[in-house]
Write a structure and sequence with these properties.
8 helices; mainly alpha; elongated
Length: 174
């Protein structure tokens, strides 16, 4: 509380800064203040005994930016989205050859970004990268298998896709 009070000049900024800190510690990123649930705003407002009706608002984006910097310093993280995205891509690409579930790939990438002491990119960044890279890696694996197969082996696989009768035998076409 003292840290936040020393860094702010009004109740609205104090509440906003405390919500930023709480949100960052809980989620690893900064939601828009209007996206913070009212229940959380009320809880923090009551916990620090601010007047009822105090809202977390900034009159200038410059103040919000300054406060995000203060929270990052307090949390011991760095804002470097280019480096964070690079770590996400590298870790997903490395693991995608052995893992196919997006949640597994995203969790590994999250751990690596946190280990690096960086602020997390948005979840949509992780999700899009996992999907894109997984598609690329799976296509590469399919191409590698296809290229190692003989024409006869490929024809045998294609026969598995032919229509079957109710007794499990291949339907005759013709």
């Amino acid at each position: 509380m003292k840290w936040a009070a020393d860094a702010t000049d009004c109740d609205e900024h104090l509440l906003a800064l405390l919500l930023m800190l709480k949100s960052y510690r809980r989620m690893g990123c900064f939601p828009a203040l209007e996206d913070v649930p009212e229940m959380v705003v009320d809880f923090v407002r009551r916990a620090v005994e601010l007047p009822e009706g105090t809202l977390p608002v900034y009159r200038a984006e410059r103040t919000a930016k300054h406060h995000r910097g203060l929270v990052r310093k307090q949390a011991g993280v760095t804002y470097d989205q280019v480096r964070a995205r690079g770590i996400v891509e590298q870790s997903i690409r490395k693991e995608a050859t052995a893992k196919n579930r997006p949640a597994d790939l995203i969790n590994i990438a999250l751990e690596k970004v946190v280990e690096a002491g960086l602020e997390l990119p948005r979840f949509s960044t992780f999700d899009k990268m996992a999907s894109k890279i997984r598609t690329e890696v799976n296509a590469s694996i399919r191409t590698g298998i296809h290229d190692r197969m003989s024409a006869a082996q490929r024809a045998g696989l294609m026969r598995l896709l032919e229509d079957r009768d109710s007794d499990g035998t291949t339907c005759s076409t013709g």
